[in-house]
């Protein structure tokens, strides 16, 4: 057992709230604590990356680059750390090398000090560009080993990966136990094996999901790991991390004493304990100790997001079915470690398999891309039957996926145009095209409104009255519409309250121009009323098997289509899927537009033989 002081990275500003409240903590609740955090003496504070970028744009309506700049200014003495998904950066696909390099350079210029760089498949080819960019920026490049268990993952595999990370010039190596699968003695073995082979500082990131993280940290420290990730106690435990204060107390007076002041830690923890109360709306029921993780292998951040996604579909009672399906999907895909984006790929496909009642009836585009080698090399052989069903006779790539991507930064700049005020805006659009563009459009109109912290209730007094009445001709029928009120204006898909032929209705309306209810309608408004679609009864009826948004309509009326041809692209739980024609024939009618929500058992496209 080495005598060395243990250094702590606190994840309070990123992974803790990603795991416990689906990444909803706002910058305004971080900044008041920064002076206290900066005075503690952490090795680093993890504050960016992962889902924070997406949540800022999608839900909080904050510019994530502004968050980084504000945190850097408020934390002058402490390293800032971020999580980077290798060639995926913060998104769900591989980017061309020019985008990866630009993103790392801009992050460094805006205040990032430590880049923890991982690949979901532990494919080192997908790490090279990001590591080189971090090194060239003069910043700390931390190579990462994603820990998981399967026939394709052994201590020797992890050691070989450690050697490759050292060859790439990494400044340190992190063992990332995102699902809390490590056990204490396995931790000791992997740390010792790496210490005996690689002459680099080791960091341990282990979630508390199964209740073993503190013991894993202690065994890692005893084996020579001098850096651990923890979370302030009010945001620790369960799918989050080991409590910072507890680890500090455990190591006091030993050769591994952190030297951190417990009184200062308790003071800043008291602040964050109060902050957490604001976000009770986003608290997941699945944030306690769950020893089933060693069976289902679901990472901490994935648990709360899975629960929220199922709740939105009124299917939270089926979460255990999804848990059981996840290992089966993971096996079919060659045992990828469950970390973003593979956790979303596997998790979403498992949800689809459960909710549709038939395995792989719908296969997401991301699963197809994965089976083509679009994310890299799978750790173990994939299911040949699933691969054949998903991609047929299409070629499987055996090169680094990004080698097939031409430079794309200039095209991204052109696509987003004047909405982007700088390269940071272009990169936000690159990470999340739909969400990023919506954010930039709303910013240009000064209509950025974050989602509410509490559920909003409606009363008669709160309904905005409007005198507008009009007739709508829809699918060959006429309806008399009277607008009586509207939900919050913070989303492009808004809930409006109508009477339809005198009957009260709540209808989701896609507005293509701004609607202002006070004083009537301003400008032309195009609407689609989704509540009037009929149920599928004919062989050529196209419908979806779970609630989703339609990203694109690929066909036109009177177009000839073949059976199995893609007619719609949908998105559910951040994953895209194609909806195909059930028969060959002619498109007779289309009852959906791009950007509109769709529900199961509604006819979206009619095809006649």
Supply database-style keywords.
8-stranded parallel barrel, alpha/beta, single chain, 609 residues
Give a written overview of the molecule.
The protein has 609 residues and is of the alpha/beta class. The chain has 21 helices and 20 strands. An 8-stranded parallel beta barrel has the order 1-2-3-4-5-6-7-8, surrounded by 5 helices. α10 (213-222) links the parallel β7 and β8 (227-230). The longest helix is centred in the middle third of the chain and has 16 residues, at 262-277. The chain is globular and about 80 Å long.
> What share of residues is helical?
25-40%
- The portion of residues forming beta strands comes to 15-25%
Q: Within the largest sheet, what's the order of strands? A: 1-2-3-4-5-6-7-8
Q: Judging from the principal axes of the Cα atoms, what is the shape? A: globular
Radius of gyration: 25 Å
Question: What distance separates the N and C termini?
Answer: 75 Å
User: Which segments are poorly predicted (pLDDT under 50) over 5 or more consecutive residues?
Assistant: 462-467, 510-531
Report the sheet with the most strands, covering strand number, pairing sense and barrel closure.
8 strands, parallel, barrel
How many strands appear in the DSSP assignment?
A: 20
Integer average pLDDT:
87
Oligomer: single chain
Supply the number of helical segments.
Answer: 21
């Amino acid at each position: 057992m080495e005598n060395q002081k243990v250094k702590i990275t606190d994840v309070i500003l990123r992974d803790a709230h990603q795991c416990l409240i689906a990444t909803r903590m706002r910058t305004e609740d971080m900044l008041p604590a920064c002076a206290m955090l900066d005075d503690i003496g952490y090795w680093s504070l993890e504050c960016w990356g992962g889902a924070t970028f997406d949540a800022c744009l999608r839900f909080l309506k904050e510019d994530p680059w502004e968050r980084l700049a504000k945190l850097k200014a408020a934390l002058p003495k402490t390293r800032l750390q971020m999580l980077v998904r290798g060639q995926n950066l913060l998104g769900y696909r591989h980017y061309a090398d020019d985008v990866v390099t630009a993103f790392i350079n801009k992050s460094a210029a805006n205040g990032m000090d430590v880049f923890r760089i991982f690949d979901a498949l532990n494919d080192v080819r997908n790490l090279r560009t990001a590591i080189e960019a971090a090194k060239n920026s003069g910043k700390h490049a931390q190579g990462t080993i994603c820990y998981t268990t399967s026939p394709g993952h052994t201590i020797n595999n992890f050691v070989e990966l450690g050697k490759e990370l050292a060859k790439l010039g990494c400044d340190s190596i992190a063992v990332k136990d995102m699902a809390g699968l490590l056990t204490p003695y396995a931790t000791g073995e992997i740390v010792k094996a790496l210490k005996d082979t690689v002459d680099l500082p080791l960091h341990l990131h282990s979630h508390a999901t199964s209740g073993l993280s503190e013991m894993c940290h202690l065994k890692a420290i005893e084996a020579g790991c001098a850096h651990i990730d923890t979370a302030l106690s009010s945001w620790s435990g369960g799918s989050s991390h080991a409590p910072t204060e507890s680890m500090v107390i455990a190591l006091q007076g030993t050769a591994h004493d952190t030297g951190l002041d417990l009184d200062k830690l308790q003071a800043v923890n008291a602040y964050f304990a109060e902050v957490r109360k604001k976000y009770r709306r986003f608290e997941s029921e699945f944030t306690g100790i769950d020893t089933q993780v060693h069976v289902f292998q679901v990472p901490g951040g994935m648990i709360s997001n899975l629960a929220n996604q199922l709740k939105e579909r009124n299917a939270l009672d089926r979460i255990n079915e999804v848990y059981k399906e996840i290992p089966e999907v993971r096996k079919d895909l060659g045992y990828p470690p469950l970390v973003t984006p593979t956790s979303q790929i596997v998790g979403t496909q498992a949800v689809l398999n459960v909710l549709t009642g038939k395995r792989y009836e719908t296969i997401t585009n991301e699963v197809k891309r994965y089976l083509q080698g679009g994310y890299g090399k799978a750790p173990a052989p994939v299911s040949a039957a699933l691969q054949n069903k998903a991609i047929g006779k299409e070629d499987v790539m055996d090169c680094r996926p990004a080698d097939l991507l031409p430079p794309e930064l200039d095209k991204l700049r052109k696509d987003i145009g004047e909405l982007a005020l700088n390269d940071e805006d272009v990169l936000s659009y690159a990470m999340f095209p739909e969400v990023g563009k919506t954010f930039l459009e709303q910013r240009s109109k000064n209509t950025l409104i974050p989602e509410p912290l509490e559920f909003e209730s409606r009363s008669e007094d709160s309904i905005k009255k409007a005198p507008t009445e009009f007739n709508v001709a829809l699918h060959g029928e006429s309806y008399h519409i009277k607008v009586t009120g509207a939900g919050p204006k913070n989303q492009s898909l808004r809930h409006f309250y109508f009477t339809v032929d005198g009957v009260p209705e709540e209808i989701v309306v896609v507005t293509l121009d701004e609607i202002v209810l006070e004083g009537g309608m301003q400008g032309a408004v195009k609407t689609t009323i989704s509540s009037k679609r009929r149920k599928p009864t004919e062989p050529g009826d196209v419908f979806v098997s779970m609630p989703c948004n339609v990203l694109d309509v690929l066909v036109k009326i009177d177009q000839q289509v073949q059976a199995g041809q893609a007619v719609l692209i949908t998105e559910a739980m951040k994953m895209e899927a194609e909806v195909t024609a059930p028969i060959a024939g002619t498109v007779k009618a289309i009852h959906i537009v791009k950007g509109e929500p769709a529900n199961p058992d509604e006819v979206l496209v009619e095809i006649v033989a």
